[in-house]
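User: Sequence recovery, please. Input:
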Protein backbone atom coordinates (compact mmCIF):
# COMPACT_ATOMS: atom_id res chain seq x y z
CA UNK A 1 0.00 0.00 0.00
CA UNK A 2 1.22 3.51 -0.85
CA UNK A 3 2.75 5.32 2.14
CA UNK A 4 0.56 8.40 1.70
CA UNK A 5 -2.60 6.31 1.50
CA UNK A 6 -1.51 4.43 4.62
CA UNK A 7 -0.90 7.70 6.47
CA UNK A 8 -4.30 9.10 5.48
CA UNK A 9 -6.02 5.87 6.47
CA UNK A 10 -4.22 5.88 9.84
CA UNK A 11 -5.30 9.47 10.47
CA UNK A 12 -8.94 8.71 9.62
CA UNK A 13 -8.92 5.70 11.96
CA UNK A 14 -7.64 7.94 14.73
CA UNK A 15 -10.44 10.43 14.07
CA UNK A 16 -13.01 7.63 14.29
CA UNK A 17 -11.55 6.29 17.53
CA UNK A 18 -11.49 9.79 19.01
CA UNK A 19 -15.25 10.10 18.37
CA UNK A 20 -16.83 7.12 20.18
CA UNK A 21 -20.31 8.49 19.51
CA UNK A 22 -19.84 8.34 15.77
CA UNK A 23 -18.23 4.90 15.98
CA UNK A 24 -21.04 3.59 18.16
CA UNK A 25 -23.68 4.98 15.79
CA UNK A 26 -21.97 3.48 12.75
CA UNK A 27 -21.72 0.07 14.40
CA UNK A 28 -25.09 0.21 16.12
CA UNK A 29 -27.23 1.37 13.18
CA UNK A 30 -26.97 -1.91 11.18
CA UNK A 31 -27.75 -3.94 14.31
CA UNK A 32 -30.68 -1.65 15.11
CA UNK A 33 -32.05 -2.05 11.57
CA UNK A 34 -31.64 -5.84 11.77
CA UNK A 35 -33.54 -6.03 15.04
CA UNK A 36 -36.32 -3.73 13.84
CA UNK A 37 -36.87 -5.49 10.54
CA UNK A 38 -36.43 -8.92 12.10
CA UNK A 39 -38.81 -8.52 15.05
CA UNK A 40 -40.99 -5.44 14.59
CA UNK A 41 -41.71 -5.38 10.84
CA UNK A 42 -44.41 -7.82 9.84
CA UNK A 43 -46.77 -7.77 6.89
CA UNK A 44 -48.94 -10.45 8.46
CA UNK A 45 -52.29 -9.45 9.94
CA UNK A 46 -52.93 -11.53 13.04
CA UNK A 47 -54.88 -11.10 16.27
CA UNK A 48 -57.31 -8.69 14.65
CA UNK A 49 -59.59 -7.15 17.31
CA UNK A 50 -63.13 -8.12 16.33
CA UNK A 51 -66.36 -7.08 18.01
CA UNK A 52 -69.21 -9.56 17.53
CA UNK A 53 -72.74 -8.26 17.99
CA UNK A 54 -74.83 -11.39 18.38
CA UNK A 55 -78.43 -10.18 18.13
CA UNK A 56 -79.77 -13.70 17.52
CA UNK A 57 -78.32 -15.39 20.64
CA UNK A 58 -78.81 -18.95 19.41
CA UNK A 59 -76.43 -21.93 19.32
CA UNK A 60 -75.94 -21.34 15.59
CA UNK A 61 -74.95 -17.69 16.06
CA UNK A 62 -72.64 -18.57 18.95
CA UNK A 63 -71.02 -21.24 16.78
CA UNK A 64 -70.33 -18.63 14.10
CA UNK A 65 -68.72 -16.30 16.66
CA UNK A 66 -66.60 -19.13 18.06
CA UNK A 67 -65.47 -20.03 14.55
CA UNK A 68 -63.95 -16.55 14.18
CA UNK A 69 -61.94 -16.73 17.39
CA UNK A 70 -60.88 -20.37 17.02
CA UNK A 71 -58.18 -19.89 14.38
CA UNK A 72 -56.13 -17.13 16.01
CA UNK A 73 -56.73 -14.61 13.23
CA UNK A 74 -59.24 -12.71 15.36
CA UNK A 75 -59.33 -11.85 19.05
CA UNK A 76 -62.22 -10.32 21.00
CA UNK A 77 -62.09 -6.52 21.00
CA UNK A 78 -61.49 -4.80 24.31
CA UNK A 79 -64.75 -3.94 26.08
CA UNK A 80 -65.73 -0.31 26.10
CA UNK A 81 -68.65 2.09 25.94
CA UNK A 82 -70.81 1.94 22.86
CA UNK A 83 -70.61 -0.58 20.09
CA UNK A 84 -70.63 -0.94 16.34
CA UNK A 85 -69.12 2.06 14.58
CA UNK A 86 -67.99 3.67 17.85
CA UNK A 87 -65.72 0.67 18.43
CA UNK A 88 -64.12 1.39 15.06
CA UNK A 89 -63.78 5.11 15.78
CA UNK A 90 -61.95 4.51 19.05
CA UNK A 91 -59.73 1.84 17.50
CA UNK A 92 -60.93 -0.81 19.95
CA UNK A 93 -61.93 -2.98 17.02
CA UNK A 94 -60.70 -3.36 13.47
CA UNK A 95 -63.98 -4.93 12.39
CA UNK A 96 -67.51 -5.45 13.70
CA UNK A 97 -69.51 -8.58 12.88
CA UNK A 98 -73.26 -8.28 13.41
CA UNK A 99 -75.40 -11.41 13.44
CA UNK A 100 -79.01 -10.23 13.00
CA UNK A 101 -82.11 -11.68 14.68
CA UNK A 102 -83.58 -14.63 12.82
CA UNK A 103 -80.17 -15.93 11.79
CA UNK A 104 -80.82 -19.49 13.03
CA UNK A 105 -84.38 -19.57 11.63
CA UNK A 106 -83.10 -18.62 8.18
CA UNK A 107 -80.51 -21.38 8.35
CA UNK A 108 -83.20 -23.86 9.37
CA UNK A 109 -85.31 -22.91 6.34
CA UNK A 110 -82.30 -23.27 4.02
CA UNK A 111 -82.28 -19.58 3.22
CA UNK A 112 -79.23 -17.33 2.94
CA UNK A 113 -78.74 -15.77 6.37
CA UNK A 114 -77.54 -12.16 6.26
CA UNK A 115 -74.36 -11.28 8.16
CA UNK A 116 -73.39 -7.62 8.35
CA UNK A 117 -69.71 -6.69 8.56
CA UNK A 118 -68.16 -3.24 9.17
CA UNK A 119 -64.40 -2.87 8.66
CA UNK A 120 -62.15 0.04 9.67
CA UNK A 121 -60.78 1.32 6.35
CA UNK A 122 -58.36 3.89 7.80
CA UNK A 123 -55.60 1.38 7.01
CA UNK A 124 -56.48 0.13 3.54
CA UNK A 125 -54.00 -2.76 3.43
CA UNK A 126 -55.20 -4.19 6.73
CA UNK A 127 -58.84 -3.59 5.81
CA UNK A 128 -58.52 -5.64 2.62
CA UNK A 129 -56.87 -8.48 4.52
CA UNK A 130 -59.43 -8.41 7.33
CA UNK A 131 -62.34 -8.38 4.86
CA UNK A 132 -60.80 -11.38 3.11
CA UNK A 133 -60.45 -13.24 6.42
CA UNK A 134 -64.09 -12.58 7.31
CA UNK A 135 -65.32 -13.61 3.89
CA UNK A 136 -63.32 -16.83 3.98
CA UNK A 137 -64.45 -17.76 7.49
CA UNK A 138 -68.11 -17.14 6.68
CA UNK A 139 -67.86 -19.23 3.52
CA UNK A 140 -66.12 -22.01 5.44
CA UNK A 141 -68.82 -21.91 8.12
CA UNK A 142 -71.51 -22.17 5.45
CA UNK A 143 -69.70 -25.02 3.74
CA UNK A 144 -69.40 -26.93 7.00
CA UNK A 145 -73.14 -26.56 7.62
CA UNK A 146 -73.98 -27.79 4.13
CA UNK A 147 -71.61 -30.72 4.52
CA UNK A 148 -73.21 -31.60 7.87
CA UNK A 149 -76.71 -31.42 6.32
CA UNK A 150 -75.61 -33.61 3.41
CA UNK A 151 -74.13 -36.16 5.80
CA UNK A 152 -77.36 -36.30 7.80
CA UNK A 153 -79.55 -36.56 4.68
CA UNK A 154 -77.47 -39.31 3.11
CA UNK A 155 -75.72 -39.64 -0.24
CA UNK A 156 -78.93 -39.35 -2.28
CA UNK A 157 -79.46 -35.77 -1.18
CA UNK A 158 -75.84 -34.83 -0.96
CA UNK A 159 -74.05 -32.36 -3.13
CA UNK A 160 -71.11 -30.02 -3.06
CA UNK A 161 -71.09 -27.80 0.03
CA UNK A 162 -72.24 -24.29 -0.68
CA UNK A 163 -72.46 -20.97 1.14
CA UNK A 164 -75.47 -20.38 3.36
CA UNK A 165 -74.48 -16.94 4.59
CA UNK A 166 -75.34 -13.70 2.84
CA UNK A 167 -72.26 -11.61 3.69
CA UNK A 168 -72.81 -7.86 3.54
CA UNK A 169 -69.46 -6.14 4.14
CA UNK A 170 -69.20 -2.38 4.64
CA UNK A 171 -65.95 -0.43 4.90
CA UNK A 172 -66.02 2.71 7.03
CA UNK A 173 -63.86 5.86 6.72
CA UNK A 174 -62.26 4.75 3.42
CA UNK A 175 -64.91 2.99 1.37
CA UNK A 176 -62.74 2.64 -1.75
CA UNK A 177 -59.73 1.41 0.28
CA UNK A 178 -57.45 3.94 -1.42
CA UNK A 179 -53.92 3.72 -0.09
CA UNK A 180 -53.44 7.49 -0.33
CA UNK A 181 -56.04 8.01 2.40
CA UNK A 182 -54.04 6.23 5.10
CA UNK A 183 -50.66 7.33 3.70
CA UNK A 184 -51.40 11.05 4.09
CA UNK A 185 -51.28 11.05 7.95
CA UNK A 186 -48.01 9.13 7.85
CA UNK A 187 -46.51 11.56 5.36
CA UNK A 188 -47.53 14.53 7.53
CA UNK A 189 -45.83 12.94 10.54
CA UNK A 190 -42.73 12.07 8.51
CA UNK A 191 -42.35 15.59 7.14
CA UNK A 192 -42.76 17.12 10.59
CA UNK A 193 -40.17 14.72 12.01
CA UNK A 194 -37.65 15.66 9.32
CA UNK A 195 -38.33 19.37 9.70
CA UNK A 196 -38.51 19.50 13.50
CA UNK A 197 -36.18 16.83 14.87
CA UNK A 198 -33.49 16.34 12.24
CA UNK A 199 -33.23 19.96 11.11
CA UNK A 200 -33.19 21.29 14.68
CA UNK A 201 -30.52 18.83 15.80
CA UNK A 202 -28.29 19.66 12.83
CA UNK A 203 -28.79 23.40 13.24
CA UNK A 204 -27.78 23.41 16.91
CA UNK A 205 -24.79 21.12 16.34
CA UNK A 206 -23.68 23.37 13.48
CA UNK A 207 -23.34 26.13 16.06
CA UNK A 208 -20.98 23.89 18.02
CA UNK A 209 -18.86 23.11 14.99
CA UNK A 210 -18.62 26.80 14.08
CA UNK A 211 -17.64 27.72 17.63
CA UNK A 212 -20.51 30.15 18.11
CA UNK A 213 -22.30 27.92 20.63
CA UNK A 214 -19.72 28.82 23.29
CA UNK A 215 -20.67 32.49 22.98
CA UNK A 216 -24.36 31.66 23.23
CA UNK A 217 -23.87 29.49 26.32
CA UNK A 218 -22.06 32.24 28.23
CA UNK A 219 -24.70 34.84 27.34
CA UNK A 220 -27.44 35.80 29.85
CA UNK A 221 -30.12 34.04 27.75
CA UNK A 222 -31.88 31.27 29.71
CA UNK A 223 -31.84 27.66 28.61
CA UNK A 224 -35.57 27.57 27.87
CA UNK A 225 -35.34 30.90 26.00
CA UNK A 226 -32.48 29.54 23.93
CA UNK A 227 -34.42 26.38 23.08
CA UNK A 228 -37.51 28.32 22.05
CA UNK A 229 -35.51 30.82 20.02
CA UNK A 230 -33.70 28.06 18.17
CA UNK A 231 -36.78 25.93 17.52
CA UNK A 232 -39.57 28.39 16.72
CA UNK A 233 -38.40 28.96 13.10
CA UNK A 234 -38.42 25.21 12.50
CA UNK A 235 -41.85 24.97 14.10
CA UNK A 236 -43.14 27.53 11.59
CA UNK A 237 -41.53 25.67 8.69
CA UNK A 238 -43.00 22.37 9.91
CA UNK A 239 -46.49 23.83 10.28
CA UNK A 240 -46.36 25.26 6.76
CA UNK A 241 -45.10 21.93 5.39
CA UNK A 242 -47.93 20.02 7.08
CA UNK A 243 -50.51 22.49 5.75
CA UNK A 244 -49.09 22.15 2.23
CA UNK A 245 -49.29 18.35 2.39
CA UNK A 246 -52.89 18.38 3.66
CA UNK A 247 -53.89 21.00 1.07
CA UNK A 248 -52.26 19.07 -1.77
CA UNK A 249 -53.91 15.84 -0.60
CA UNK A 250 -57.32 17.54 -0.67
CA UNK A 251 -56.79 19.14 -4.10
CA UNK A 252 -55.02 16.30 -5.90
CA UNK A 253 -56.47 13.19 -4.26
CA UNK A 254 -59.69 14.35 -2.62
CA UNK A 255 -58.44 13.42 0.86
CA UNK A 256 -59.99 16.10 3.07
CA UNK A 257 -59.74 16.50 6.83
CA UNK A 258 -62.86 14.78 8.17
CA UNK A 259 -62.60 16.29 11.65
CA UNK A 260 -62.04 19.75 13.06
CA UNK A 261 -59.16 21.85 11.72
CA UNK A 262 -58.75 23.49 15.12
CA UNK A 263 -58.23 20.11 16.81
CA UNK A 264 -55.73 19.18 14.12
CA UNK A 265 -53.85 22.46 14.67
CA UNK A 266 -53.41 22.19 18.43
CA UNK A 267 -52.50 18.49 18.39
CA UNK A 268 -49.97 19.21 15.65
CA UNK A 269 -48.59 21.96 17.88
CA UNK A 270 -48.13 19.41 20.67
CA UNK A 271 -46.28 17.10 18.31
CA UNK A 272 -44.08 19.93 17.08
CA UNK A 273 -43.19 20.87 20.66
CA UNK A 274 -42.24 17.28 21.44
CA UNK A 275 -40.25 16.89 18.21
CA UNK A 276 -38.40 20.19 18.51
CA UNK A 277 -37.44 19.48 22.11
CA UNK A 278 -36.27 16.02 21.07
CA UNK A 279 -34.14 17.60 18.34
CA UNK A 280 -32.52 19.96 20.86
CA UNK A 281 -31.97 17.04 23.25
CA UNK A 282 -30.22 15.09 20.50
CA UNK A 283 -28.01 18.08 19.74
CA UNK A 284 -26.74 18.06 23.33
CA UNK A 285 -25.59 14.45 22.86
CA UNK A 286 -23.64 15.03 19.62
CA UNK A 287 -20.63 17.16 18.77
CA UNK A 288 -20.74 16.74 14.98
CA UNK A 289 -23.50 16.96 12.42
CA UNK A 290 -22.81 13.40 11.26
CA UNK A 291 -23.41 12.00 14.74
CA UNK A 292 -26.50 14.20 15.18
CA UNK A 293 -27.93 12.94 11.88
CA UNK A 294 -27.29 9.30 12.77
CA UNK A 295 -28.83 9.63 16.24
CA UNK A 296 -31.87 11.53 14.96
CA UNK A 297 -32.33 8.93 12.21
CA UNK A 298 -32.26 6.08 14.71
CA UNK A 299 -34.61 7.84 17.14
CA UNK A 300 -37.09 9.39 14.71
CA UNK A 301 -37.01 8.48 11.01
CA UNK A 302 -36.61 4.72 11.37
CA UNK A 303 -39.21 4.43 14.18
CA UNK A 304 -41.61 6.54 12.08
CA UNK A 305 -41.45 3.94 9.31
CA UNK A 306 -41.24 0.76 11.38
CA UNK A 307 -42.72 1.37 14.84
CA UNK A 308 -45.38 4.08 14.59
CA UNK A 309 -48.05 2.21 12.65
CA UNK A 310 -47.35 4.21 9.47
CA UNK A 311 -46.51 1.15 7.36
CA UNK A 312 -46.80 -1.85 9.68
CA UNK A 313 -49.64 -2.40 12.20
CA UNK A 314 -48.40 -2.01 15.78
CA UNK A 315 -50.78 -4.70 17.01
CA UNK A 316 -48.94 -7.34 14.96
CA UNK A 317 -45.64 -6.67 16.74
CA UNK A 318 -44.40 -8.63 19.78
CA UNK A 319 -45.48 -7.32 23.18
CA UNK A 320 -42.02 -5.92 24.00
CA UNK A 321 -41.84 -4.04 20.70
CA UNK A 322 -45.37 -2.69 21.23
CA UNK A 323 -44.13 -1.23 24.51
CA UNK A 324 -41.10 0.27 22.73
CA UNK A 325 -43.38 2.02 20.22
CA UNK A 326 -44.77 4.10 23.12
CA UNK A 327 -41.35 5.71 23.56
CA UNK A 328 -41.74 7.70 20.34
CA UNK A 329 -44.10 10.67 19.89
CA UNK A 330 -44.93 9.70 16.30
CA UNK A 331 -46.93 6.71 17.56
CA UNK A 332 -49.32 8.95 19.49
CA UNK A 333 -49.47 11.57 16.76
CA UNK A 334 -50.42 9.03 14.08
CA UNK A 335 -53.26 7.74 16.25
CA UNK A 336 -54.51 11.32 16.56
CA UNK A 337 -54.11 12.03 12.83
CA UNK A 338 -56.08 8.93 11.84
CA UNK A 339 -58.84 9.86 14.27
CA UNK A 340 -59.11 13.48 13.05
CA UNK A 341 -58.14 13.35 9.35
CA UNK A 342 -59.66 10.01 8.33
CA UNK A 343 -62.39 9.21 10.85
CA UNK A 344 -63.48 12.70 11.95
CA UNK A 345 -63.82 11.34 15.48
CA UNK A 346 -64.62 13.64 18.43
CA UNK A 347 -62.00 14.51 21.05
CA UNK A 348 -62.94 11.75 23.51
CA UNK A 349 -61.72 9.14 21.02
CA UNK A 350 -58.16 10.51 20.89
CA UNK A 351 -57.93 12.13 24.33
CA UNK A 352 -55.55 9.39 25.54
CA UNK A 353 -52.94 9.82 22.78
CA UNK A 354 -53.23 13.62 23.07
CA UNK A 355 -52.56 13.51 26.83
CA UNK A 356 -49.60 11.16 26.28
CA UNK A 357 -48.21 13.51 23.61
CA UNK A 358 -48.54 16.50 25.97
CA UNK A 359 -46.66 14.62 28.71
CA UNK A 360 -44.00 13.59 26.20
CA UNK A 361 -43.55 17.20 25.05
CA UNK A 362 -43.23 18.45 28.64
CA UNK A 363 -40.69 15.74 29.51
CA UNK A 364 -38.64 16.41 26.34
CA UNK A 365 -38.57 20.17 26.98
CA UNK A 366 -37.51 19.61 30.60
CA UNK A 367 -34.76 17.16 29.60
CA UNK A 368 -33.46 19.49 26.89
CA UNK A 369 -33.42 22.43 29.34
CA UNK A 370 -31.49 20.40 31.93
CA UNK A 371 -28.93 19.26 29.36
CA UNK A 372 -28.44 22.82 28.10
CA UNK A 373 -28.05 24.12 31.65
CA UNK A 374 -25.36 21.56 32.32
CA UNK A 375 -23.51 22.51 29.13
CA UNK A 376 -23.74 26.16 30.14
CA UNK A 377 -22.32 25.47 33.60
CA UNK A 378 -19.41 23.53 32.12
CA UNK A 379 -18.64 26.33 29.64
CA UNK A 380 -18.38 28.96 32.38
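Assistant: Recovered sequence (380 residues):
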Amino acid sequence: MNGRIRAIARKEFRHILRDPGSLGALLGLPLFLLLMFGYAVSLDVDEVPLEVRDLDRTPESRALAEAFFAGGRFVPADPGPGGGESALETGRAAAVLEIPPGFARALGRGEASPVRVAVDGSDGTRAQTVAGYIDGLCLRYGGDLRALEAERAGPADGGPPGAVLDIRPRVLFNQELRSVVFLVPGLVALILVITAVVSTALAVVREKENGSMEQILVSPVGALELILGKTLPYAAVGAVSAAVVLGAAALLFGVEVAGGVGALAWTTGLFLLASLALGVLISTMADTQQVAFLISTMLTLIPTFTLSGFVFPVRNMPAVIRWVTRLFPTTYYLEILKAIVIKGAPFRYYAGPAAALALYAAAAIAAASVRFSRERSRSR
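The longest strand covers residues 113-120.
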